[in-house]
């Protein structure tokens, strides 16, 4: 049994998706990031960085794992699925996983801050992160022109990147003119385990919500920024 400590963020949904794909039994514990639960002592004993997601593998002497990429690798290795065993196949998956961890996630995260959450509209910062997100999306689109999935067969690399790229509208970044990226978004998003995983837990906001609802959600996020609690997911 896996205990999953999470919230409705792209990084949180990476882990619920992979758990559904691997058909591993798990208990979900949803943390209230706005209330700062991720900074409480009990959770810091699981993840010293005070961010979600994190897991405890109850079947492996209560082994704790934090950082979403590390969790994906751990669960894939534990089950022998979604990560090839051969050196080159494994490397291909890890390359695209690192692409998300070092590029897609941080750049989209910063786009969210300056486009949605920051109280002042700093256009140079918005342009900077929108431009970098678009560049990274074009990298994906170009690669996917010749590949059905990112690293050969469907893998944790697809899960990691998809969980973020699917939220491009919220970040203010279009995928128009990127047909191969759009095809892949629909392909991965059509998997039953993926559809279930993104409801575990359900997002507080439909990413295509009305402007009024979007602004209400953004105001709550601004409060988290002001109190330094927004960095509660990894």
TrEMBL record:
InterPro entries: Glutathione-S-Trfase_C-like, Glutathione-S-Trfase_C_sf, Glutathione_S-Trfase, Glutathione_S-Trfase_N, GST_C, Thioredoxin-like_sf. One of its GO terms (molecular function) is transferase activity. Keywords: Transferase. Pfam families: GST_C (PF00043), GST_N (PF02798). Residues 1-83 form the GST N-terminal domain. Signal peptide: none annotated. Residues 86-212 form the GST C-terminal domain. CDD domains: GST_N_Ure2p_like (cd03048). SUPFAM superfamilies: GST C-terminal domain-like, Thioredoxin-like. Belongs to the GST superfamily. This is Glutathione S-transferase. It comes from Pseudoduganella ginsengisoli.
